[in-house]
Amino acid sequence: MSGTVDAKLAELGLTLPEVVPPLAAYQPAVRSGGYVFTAGQLPMVKGSLPLTGKVGAEVSAEQAKELAATCALNALAAVKSVIGDLDKIARVVKVVGFVASAPDFTGQPGVLNGASELLGAVLGDKGVHARSAVGVAVLPLDAPVEIEIQVEILPGA
Are 148 and 95 in contact, with CB atoms under 8 Å apart? Predict the structure, then answer.
């Protein structure tokens, strides 16, 4: 049934944002066969980052978790820009998340739960995925978090 994912987004009080324009020479998402791969999605809101800095220093783990959810929402927007309808998603296969971390911060998995929980809330069982959580020194634009997702598309979609 078309519109199921859109209805779930509305029920959760979420709206898919406009696709964030590329910051360099790449596409926000590309389809290859039965999969869509997104570029790294920053937690952009209406064209800017709500917070910058390192998690565990300028940005709290809880704030970063919320930013990770924003990244996942941006990733879903990128997927929709390629396939037209999020109901064509068979499942989210993999999430890779990068957390700009203070030297002693080790809570990257907790931060990325923000993205994982959003995908589960929006897509149900189709949102359950494998995941990598990586701490890094710095991200583009001094973003605290960056997420990329890989999505399998329903056959024939």
Answer: yes
